[in-house]
Amino acid sequence: MALKIVKGSIDRMFDKNLQDLVRGIRNHKEDEAKYISTCIDEIKQELKQDNIAVKANAVCKLTYLQMLGYDVSWAAFNIVEVMSSSKFTYKRIGYLAASQCFHESTDVIMLTTNQIRKDLSSPNQYDTGVALTGLSCFVTPDLARDLANDIMTLMSHTKPYIRKKAVLIMYKVFLKYPESLRPAFPRLKEKLEDPDPGVQSAAVNVICELARRNPKNYLSLAPLFFKLMTSSTNNWVLIKIIKLFGALTPLEPRLGKKLIEPLTNLIHSTSAMSLLYECVNTVIAVLISLSSGMPNHSASIQLCVQKLRILIEDSDQNLKYLGLLAMSKILKTHPKSVQSHKDLILQCLDDKDESIRLRALDLLYGMVSKKNLMEIVKKLMLHVDKAEGTTYRDELLTKIIDICSQSNYQYITNFEWYISILVELTRLEGTRHGHLIASQMLDVAIRVKAIRIFAVAQMATLLDNAHLLTGNMQRNGICEVLYAAAWICGEFSEHLENPMQTLEAMLRPKVATLPGHIQAVYVQNAAKLFSTVLKSQEGSTEGTAAQETSQLMIDRLPLFVQSANLEVQERASCILQLVKYIQKLQQKEVEVAEEVSALFAGELNPVAPKAQKKVPVPEGLDLDAWINEPPSESESEDEQPKAIFAKEEPKHSRSRHTEVDEKELARRREARKQEQANNPFYIKASPSSQKVYQESPGVEHIPVVQIDLTVPLKVPGLPMSDQYLKLEEERRQKERADKKKKEKKKRKEKRSGRGRRHDSGPESEEDITPAHMVDIVTEEMPENALPSDDDDKDPNDPHKALDIDLDNLVESAGRRPLADSEKLPVRSHRAAKVAKSPVEDGDAENTPPSQEPKKKSSKEKREKKKDKDRDRKKSKEEKKKKKHKHEEKEEDLLGGEADEPVVQSEDTTEVVALPTSTNAEVSDLDFWLSNAPVPSNTQEAATVAATAEADSVPEATSGTAPDSDHDEPKNSELEETKSSKHKKKKQKKEKEEKEKKKKKKHHHHHRHHSDGGADESVQNGTVEDEEPLPPMSNYCLLAENSYIKMVCDIQGNLQDGSQVVVSVIFENKCDSLLKSMEFNVLDSLNSKLQRPEGSGPHDGFTVPFQLPPGVSNEARLVFTVQSIVMPQKMKGTLTFIVKNEDSSIHEKLDFKLHFTCTSYLITTPCYSDAFAKLLESGDLKCSSVRLEEVNMPFHHLLARICFHHHFSVVERIDSCASMYSRSIQGHHVCLLVKTSGQTVSIDAKCDEPTLLGNVLDEIKQTFSQC
Amino acid sequence: MIRAILIFNNHGKPRLSKFYEHYTEDTEQQIIRETFHLVSKRDENVCNFLEGGMLIGGSDYKLIYRHYATLYFVFCVDSSESELGILDLIQVFVETLDKCFENVCELDLIFHVDKVHNILAEMVMGGMVLETNMNEIIMQVDAQNKMEKSETFIFQSTRQDR
What we know:
- The complex is a heterodimer of chains A (about 1250) and B (about 160).
- With about 1250 residues, chain A is of the alpha+beta class.
- In chain A, about 55% of the residues lie in helices and about 10% in strands.
- The longest helix of chain A is centred in the last third of the chain and has 37 residues, at about 860-895.
- The N and C termini of chain A lie far apart (about 95 Å).
- With about 160 residues, chain B is an alpha+beta fold.
- Chain B is about 50% helix and about 20% strand.
- In chain B, the strands form 2 sheets. A 5-stranded antiparallel sheet of chain B has the order 2-1-5-4-3, sandwiched between helices. Chain B has a two-stranded antiparallel ribbon with strand order 6-7.
- The interface between A and B is large, with 72 and 56 residues.
């Protein structure tokens, strides 16, 4: 043994450690791979040894090799071994290795669960820390599920070091196991106010990360974050919070208003650029969310823009970059304020830093106007020429196209200019965006009818010079442009100057080297051209020309027939046959042109890109249903080739309209010619034509800038867009002059004495009219197109699962308390740990009693807890008072100007009832937001007050403290100082309240321990020792005859959401023995009697006792119900035998069992804070009822509602009380009962309106009976 | 969220790579290469932000880097992180390294990559910033190193006993 150890340690001495490995690799520069492979062999040997130190060393080396790109997943098991070492040194090595190379599909990961759990609960904080760090990198859904509870426990660890790590890792757990979010959230929220800044920062981090994806769920935290923002000094936390607010403001504009002032203050005061920048960013977000009509916000915008300008002008490139980035956000909503900094942005375009140039490009998008578009694009074109890297050049190209085509070509005044820009762009070599240019060309040519003649001419030139732009075609994306060119020339061939030439260009042998889909377009459009050519040639006298054209087609097409591309081949052979037939006809001297052109007659209308998607499915058509029998699997392969056609040439699948719009076309052409003739600056599209000056007589006095004729106006295939700039200028000048003249005339005519106002001031946007009548055809949509297209969200987004409503959770007993299924899985044999689970940990009073009794924690823990609990209770009570106080004040605030307390007994009209009912309803957030922005100095005072309060409740953090409370008292205290006249009243009330509270507490206590018996219920609601209550009973008569009387009470089953327990008391009224009683009901679809196992559905329930004379006994029957929203009656029969001394008679008694909706309600205590949360959630439907002439004291009334309808009083103030109950299926029913005189009004809210309606009816009935 | 933290030298040799999202080893190397390519061709006095590469992230992601002597420190982050904040964080990271290694140089990172990992783990956890206070980080790192030392001491002494 000793020898082995010695041997082991000697071996170890010769082992390489990490440093040796690194050194070795550095010394073997030439044969690094070989050296490493020998090292890996050594490592494999080391891993086989028993010595954990050797293994750890090996794993450490593997981690290094992993970084160099070697797959080390084969050692996963060894890594787990090292992780489970008891020594921190090795454990750390193991966890590091695991975090570097484990992932979800590593199978040994499931072996680690227990080890990690052990480490998490290790007494050594660094063991725990290392495990948390490791876990954060390789957590899987399984691990997350199994360990969520352990990690949650760690969130309340005594050491802040562990707490912050545990808080942070929860985000990863949520991602992998979204179910854990709801149960963990209250505690997470609590950590926002952790005394340790690190933990606080971690919590802020996690919530910000969560809120970024699903901001609406976190709106309710805004007050808390606001408080943090005004109190925190940690810039890191501030940045996170401010970023979070940026995400929240779009959802709640009021929040934005509240934020602006503190943010502006921060902007002015902070010295940290990072913070300043984020503030500006969020202010921008706020301004975007607010409607732009706010006059006083222009100052904020100005401030932002001004600060950003400082950033952009800074010599620090980082600030410059960020300034531009933020500027682009302002641009979207306030383009005007950015446009004034155009100089600065254009300057940035020349920056040597590509990132900055790109950002500046983004900004340009919003800076263009009709006026400056040409100028800006010209500048960009210069950049295109200068740019070296293709990525930046491509970016420029897309930006140019974006800028020009934005909002339906809004800023383009001259489409000829645009077409020539596009043509110029085709000269870019190696761009990836050929298709983009092509689609623009197509779009413009199709949608702007006026431009077609020009476009066709340009495209013809392009086709003619195809060899210029497609030097190396296959590699070059630009050849896509030819696709557009060919199509445009073919489709609008009637505008071609020289169709024959173009036809020839399209049939050149070189075309065969183009990509297949382009060739296909060539072939198809050659046919269109052919038809045009025929038409013109047949018109003239020489018939031979037409025949020659046909011959040309027949000569050239076979090249395409041989194409490897199916599409090309098919089209070519089709057209070839057609031409051959035409030729035959021609030889017979038949005129064919008309018929051939009929093939391509009709106009193509542009179709919106999403049109296909939006075709509504006709009624009665089920797209998923099989039309024929489903094909066998082998058949499915046949469907494959179809896709090829559809994909390659979508354009041709469009249907054509048969009606010809010749007249319209002719008319337009005429109009255009007319316009051209009148426009002295117009350049004719024909290559031969020169610039034509036809100065119209009225404009002689305008100084015309002579165009420098050394600039070639039109060179085929070469740039010519610049000239348009000059032309445009002239045109505008002329227009201005025209206008002036007109105005003068007008003035003269009118002879009005008004002074001149329309002078030669800066040209406004509207003054610029487009060069020609531009008719931008809108894209067609199918009839009945669905209005909005759904944003296609990525279904695989892991954050989608985290879109969980958390609001109601905040007080743990809210509208939707944690269901049993939502509790985190806890391993049963570790019951001792469970004591700290969140629900358990939450104050017992605050957790809904409807929850299953919890697992008992160990006794010691309990005892320890007791003291704590006492403290906590105290603080709770204190808090409650405070809460109360503030709620009252809230009422006052809401009550508005009326100087009397809102809760008044005299008034029962609806109008007054409203504010009262809202008192609890108005959410904290609403309340918080409705306040005018608090001036900063008072704010500070308030913060002090809040912290003081926090001190007074030191235990608050361990319970599920209603954190938002801290805020309200603060506000209300402020309010208090203002309105001291309310003070006395309030104090008085408080006193009363306190007393009530005490009493109530007592009662609640009662109810917790007794089990829903009748006498207990009687007490419920009797808060004052006023009049004694008359005895009440819920047992009502079911049926009666001379032998027997049945009374019954129906109660919901606490344990099972679908069960109702019917207690029937059978009373023997005769003096014979009753036996063999069988209770039977006719089951309905909704409700069924639960019969003992083995009995059929029609068998009765045998009452398990006999009744001697005068005796009564009770039997309990269980019914299962599905829907509980409607009351129900069930028919039933009781059969029994009346046994006398001598005879026995069979008897039966029919009855109707009435399941009222009330019977589905379970008395559930609820606390005012939870109640308020519930009401504010807004998910509840409202309803109300009025009871007239109720002659009983209010407390009797309440007691009756409590008793008969299973409600509990939440809060009672004078003649107003709120009540709560819960159905067996978890519906919340909330009542606000008010009385004045003999009238009682009940406002009610419930998440199930039908149920609520029925319950109210039943309440009404109860009181009508008495 | 931080998606990856990379340290490489002027020649693109990785000195530390920490990915908070799983990639295969090949992709990781490719990302390192691509990132190096992007970062290394930038001048000294340009901004420290780069729109993300093709491989990592996408439009939402940015590369934020700093160049110190022979080393590039690159953080790949999404839009929830403040750009300037991350730049500060890199500074904190480097200063911490400087304190822990006493005048840190590339060689320290070459031979003690595990220690660098341990320091980083106290700053960033699972892609989220854990601690930005340098003193706190150093304190925790020191405490752990002390623990490690005491363990090796025990370990050696037990071995000697036998």
